[in-house]
Amino acid sequence: MKKLPFFPLAIFILTFSSCKLEPNWDVDALAPIAETTLTPGNIFRDTNLIVQPGGDLVLDYEARVFEFPVDSILKIPDSTYTYNFVSPFTLFLDPGTSLPVYNNYLLFNLPDIGLREALLRGGQLRVKVISTLTQPSIINFKIPKASKAGVPFDFTDNVPAAAAGGTAEYIRDFDISWYNIDFSGDNNDQYNKLRLQIFASLPLDAQSFQVPAGQELIRTEISFVEAQPYFARGKINTRSINIAADTVKLPFFDLIQSGTLDIEAANLDLTVNNGFGVDARAVFGSITGVNTRTGNTVALNHPILGNDINLNAAQLSPSGDLPFTASNYVLNVSTNNSNLEPFATNFPNKISINGNFTINPLGNLSSGNDFVFYNAAAAVNMHLTAPLTFSANNLVLSDTVSFNGSSLSKNNPVKKGSLKIYAENMFPFELELRLQTVDSLGNILGTPANGQLIAAGIAESDGRVYQPVSSIINVELSETDMLNLKSAKGVIFQVRFHSLPAGQLMKIYHDYRVHLKAVALVTAGI
Amino acid sequence: MLYCMYDWLIPIFLWFNTTGVTDYVPHDRNTYKMQIAVTGSFETNSNAVNAEMLRFFLAGRYIDNDMKDRSLKRMRDINRLGMDINADISFFHKPDSGLGKNWSYGINLGQRFLFGGQFSKDAYKLGFYGNAPYAGETLELGKLNARFLSYQYISLGFVKEFKGEKWHKSLGFGLGLANANQFFSLSVPRGTLFTEQDGKYLDLDASYRISSNDASKNRYFYPNGFGLSGSLEFSMTDRKRHAFYLKATNFGVMRFNSFSNSRSLDTSLTFNGVEVDNVFGVNGDYLQNTLDSLATNFGGNVARGAELLPMPGTIEMGYSYTAIPRKLYLSALVDYTYFPGYVPRGTIRVTGVPDPFVSITGTFGYGGFGGFNGGVDLGFHFGEGWHFMLGTKSIQGIVAERTTSGLSGHAGIIKRFGKRNNVNDEKK
């Protein structure tokens, strides 16, 4: 038998087992890749910039420095009260017999306030009855000084009979929202006390039966669950809280890496607010600006530091949306009465405040008429305003943009290229651009752009720039730069601001902007 | 997606030709009762892209600008390009009984890769040079049309011979089944791209549709669909010198399954770059979201569903004249394959048999995926019923690869069994 020739079979087999084409050539692509407009709002991010009538801007930033936790005062903790009726001797119970289970005060354990009155905005009262009576019973609960729309809390219900030797259980939840509760006792001279009356009786159609001495006939559990006061009146105890450090972050200074800034003026108002119906006292020991990037700190100097700031109690008269009128004290810190300028030009991205806030520092002077609303606050607010009139001296704003270069190497076989950035600048600053690629540990891989300049806008005689100045920046991306980009995990984007003319304070106007358009010319392998 | 044979195999095929794959030894036809053939063919051609560039493209070698420039000189407004790779095992039998008098049957089993398309000169510029050299110009990209098919097939055919006083006629028909393996289709009926002089913006006005089989099932032989086709063949041979045939083969449809993907877009837009709201607020998610947004805007509408494509049916008509019996044959044929980039092709062949064991054929033609083509086929008869042949139709692509197109080749071996009297000999 003749053998089949190898060659045609090999052709056939190899044709079947074909491989993918991998063509190979380069193309030069030219395309815009990104454009952005940098406005004053972008630089001073998360900050309100107020446009003045002349078009210039004022930086306006508000933040809460400290807040006294109202919950620590105005809180009725969840609590359960258990009462029972035990047969003192052998009893013969006939239909209509009444048993006094409880008729006394509930005592509330409230360490920071002696309550005389509270209006609840939420909560539940849970009533649980466990009966060993072998006949049905009638249970009656009364809280004479807890009322809603003038109607006291009073309810009566039937409890089923227990099996011989067993128990019968009865549970019911009551919504106690908007109940007004008087905790001052029967004679209005107590605190945190509330009378509760519980009676049990046998219905008229029940059968008589005998109960041995010592047997628990009825047991009741009264639970207050998540009782939330809307308003409370009474005696607020003296309490002092330290104002914690590092409480304020200034996000608009986060970007600033280095350089200096000369500002025309700045104003810092620290408003101490007392919304509690009790006197208060605040003391600021120190206010320190911390630049966490440089590690520099500048302590604020002001005469009020270390001295008491006394605040009167809030008044029970509506103010705006609030049912009370808070008491305020404004501590004004300006460049005239403090070292606010060096404080601000340290670019603190965090302000550390040490102090103390005390409520009712002089004790009970109101005869139990202190009050507090659930939406009241004792707080310290910061309000910083500064005209955007300054001179920047090599002020560097820097941000690291996360970037996954490995995806670029998979999908975009760019070998080399260049980046042309077309800039239209109205800011009276010369801008210097720097781009750096970094790895996952923040190590710098390369610096494709370093020191390219965007010309400053030219101010007219009135100090305002009306026309943008055009510049073109060329960034050559070598094959090494492309390799760095492909292994990069981030790109550091830095812009250095330098006022022109140097040292001259310049107003920043609302229509200032720098428009950047990046056009890439790349050689890509196909 | 395009496919080729292993790189090392390509040079072998460059010397061969696809023309006449199924009829290597015309003077010897019908003299055996049974035939088994194994053949392979490769052809890539264009009316504009030079052979050197096709060769480098297929081999994955770097195509430099000089090479691109040489092809660019030959570009016209609309250009064509194609590639056809086929491997086939066939069995043909004329039984003495069972099918009836003068009936025979044949079975084919094979694999085919077929790519073809047409494109504008500007599309070539954009694809091979990029848009940067043409900043400030508008590139016309419309009328771009391309398709790639990969399928395996099996066909069964029957032929009935009619022997008359003057003419020996045959009529055949066949049915084929295809395993639809892979496809890719691109159609750009309208498209212009303007790049601003400095690249500050791009103006794109385009309508396109791209479709392909399930990308996750791109393996050979994977059944991404199926095809059905039919074939008809008629031939007449007189008892003197003339032979004529007409074939319509492989006409049918191919259906790729509902996991096939398509993207379509009809838009006119100006791209100014990604708008970054705040360069100091950019994060990784923003960049990724932007890229996703770009893909959405430029990538068109994505759809998934079955795709119905015509099979690459071929019509072929030929005439053969026996100038000197068993010595010299002249033939002419016209063929057309219904596929993008393919135009009717005419071929003239001259076959000489200087020795009973050797045949030499020269071919000259125009059309198909390319333009003018010249080629050579060689046939060898070695041993009883054994034939080996190889050839190329595109010899110009080898001798002048920088100025002409066309790379092709075929090879095959045939074993025939059961010799009987040749019809022409019978006449004598």
Secondary-structure topology with pairs:
The complex is a heterodimer of chains A (526) and B (428).
Chain A: H1 6-16, E1 19-20, E2 24-38, H2 40-43, E3 48-51, E4 57-68, E5 79-86, E6 91-93, E7 98-107, E8 113-131, E9 137-148, E10 151-159, E11 168-175, E12 180-182, E13 193-201, E14 209-211, E15 216-236, E16 239-243, E17 248-249, E18 256-263, E19 267-274, E20 280-290, E21 297-299, E22 308-311, E23 327-334, H3 340-344, E24 350-359, E25 370-373, E26 378-387, E27 389-402, H4 405-411, E28 414-425, E29 429-438, E30 444-454, E31 469-477, H5 479-486, E32 490-499, E33 506-507, E34 514-525
Antiparallel strand pairs in A: 2-34, 3-4, 4-26, 5-15, 6-14, 7-13, 8-11, 8-12, 8-15, 9-10, 9-12, 9-13, 15-25, 16-24, 17-24, 18-27, 19-23, 19-26, 20-21, 20-22, 20-24, 27-32, 27-33, 28-31, 28-34, 29-30, 29-32
Chain B: E1 3-4, H1 10-13, E2 32-46, H2 51-59, E3 62-63, H3 65-72, E4 78-93, E5 103-120, H4 121-129, E6 138-140, E7 144-163, E8 167-195, E9 202-212, E10 225-238, E11 242-256, E12 261-271, E13 274-276, H5 284-299, E14 301-304, E15 307-310, E16 314-324, E17 328-337, E18 343-355, E19 358-368, E20 372-381, E21 386-392, H6 396-399, E22 407-419, H7 423-427
Antiparallel strand pairs in B: 2-4, 2-22, 4-5, 5-7, 6-8, 7-8, 8-9, 8-10, 9-12, 10-11, 11-15, 11-16, 12-14, 16-17, 17-18, 18-19, 19-20, 20-21, 21-22
Protein model, in words:
By secondary structure, chain A is mainly beta. Chain A has five helices and 34 strands. Chain A has helices at residues 6-16, 40-43, 340-344, 405-411, 479-486; strands spanning 19-20, 24-38, 48-51, 57-68, 79-86, 91-93, 98-107, 113-131, 137-148, 151-159, 168-175, 180-182, 193-201, 209-211, 216-236, 239-243, 248-249, 256-263, 267-274, 280-290, 297-299, 308-311, 327-334, 350-359, 370-373, 378-387, 389-402, 414-425, 429-438, 444-454, 469-477, 490-499, 506-507, 514-525. In chain A, strands 5, 7, 8, 9, 10, 11, 12, 13, 15 and 25 form a ten-stranded antiparallel beta sheet that branches. In chain A, strands 16, 17, 20, 21, 22 and 24 form a six-stranded antiparallel beta sheet that branches. In chain A, strands 18, 27, 29, 30, 32 and 33 form a six-stranded antiparallel beta sheet that branches. In chain A, strand 9 (137-148) and strand 10 form a beta hairpin. Chain A is elongated and about 105 Å long. Chain B has 428 residues and is mainly β. Chain B has one domain: Porin. A 14-stranded antiparallel beta barrel of chain B has the order 2-4-5-7-8-10-11-16-17-18-19-20-21-22. The longest helix of chain B has 16 residues, at 284-299. The model of chain B is unreliable at 1-29 and 422-428 (pLDDT under 50). Classes of the chains: A mainly beta (526), B mainly beta (428). Strand 2 (24-38) of chain A pairs parallel with strand 13 of chain B, so a sheet runs across the interface.
